[in-house]
Amino acid sequence: MEWISYGDDNTMTFFARAKQRKLASYIYQIKDTKGNLVEGFDRVGQTMMTFYKALLGEKNTIRQIITQEVVNQGPTLSKEQQVHMGNEFTDLEIKEAIFSIPNTKSPGPDGFSRGFFKTTWQKIGPLICSAKSQDLQKAADHSTPNSLPHQRLNEKQNFVLEQTH
Fold this sequence. Notes:
The protein is mostly helical. The chain is built from eight helices and two strands. The protein is flat. The N and C termini lie far apart (54 Å). Residues 138-165 are annotated as: Disordered.
């Protein structure tokens, strides 16, 4: 992990290591329901799909509409909590979320453990916070097309407040 301290000069090293960790998590072969060994990315994926379709079925389940009466029976958020849900995450909240995950948890899709992010936080923390904020903003921007982010936030807050009356 020393290469992280050298910054952008080692991007090739960084990406080679990330690729190596990703390849280590691939499933190269699997046994199908008949006990036959299946190999190859596409065939392994198809075998998994077949297994889970047989296990879970392919039909969409019909869900009951939940009435407001049912919702009111359980715990609900206060108006302040509801408004807070519309606020952007702060850098501190992002850091606290990452640091609350045990180091020994499975690596993420990038192949890195939470311990890696905690150890290198001083160098990569600002990048993570910036990227996460942009991702969350993009998600919010795509949720309601043709409107500005602050308009959607106000609409969301108004909707939440209306639901509490």
